[in-house]
Design goal:
This protein is an alpha+beta fold. The chain contains six helices and three strands. It has a three-stranded antiparallel beta sheet with strand order 1-2-3, with helices on one face. The longest helix is centred in the N-terminal third of the chain and has 22 residues. It is globular.
């Protein structure tokens, strides 16, 4: 328990906040997901509740008021970066999937690798799934959006 918080403190700085997932789930009357790779209904509910809690904690830490769920939502693709306390950044690409903006972690780097190594576009989605939780019922839409983003990426060069 709290292994990430302890590691962050040891190698960086004390975390401002932390969450123990089993305690969070119990406090909110949620069941643990059966798999982290492919979320079932319990996992979807737990992930949504956890995301909402994390967003509220971040807003509190940053001193921000309540933000509307739709504030700042971009429908077009937009390059952004996810980062951690060590200062490193992981490129993220926001795609519109099933009418909602979804951040795909690592996609810009994966697209560069696929282009540089001449890998088939059809295999890109498998790599995306390693770094991103993809809802089973939306796999086809994610695959299509990733392949379209890759085609746009290669076509712009």
């Amino acid at each position: 328990m709290r292994c990430t918080a302890r590691a962050t403190e040891k190698y960086s700085a004390p975390p401002t906040d932390s969450i123990v997932i089993p305690e969070f789930l119990a406090a909110h009357g949620l069941n643990a997901p059966h798999s982290c790779r492919r979320l079932d209904a319990d996992g979807e509910r737990a992930a949504a509740a956890l995301a909402q809690d994390i967003a509220a904690r971040v807003d509190r830490i940053l001193g921000k008021g309540e933000a509307s769920p739709d504030a700042g939502v971009a429908e077009e693709q937009e390059g952004i970066v996810a980062s951690c306390s060590c200062g490193s950044g992981i490129p993220v690409l926001r795609l519109n999937i099933a009418g909602k903006p979804v951040e795909i972690v690592g996609l810009p780097l994966l697209m560069e690798q696929w282009r540089d190594e001449n890998k088939p576009a059809s295999a890109l989605f498998d790599a995306v799934q390693v770094y991103n939780a993809v809802p089973h019922d939306l796999e086809d839409k994610y695959r299509t959006a990733v392949q379209r983003a890759f085609a746009d990426f290669v076509g712009k060069e």
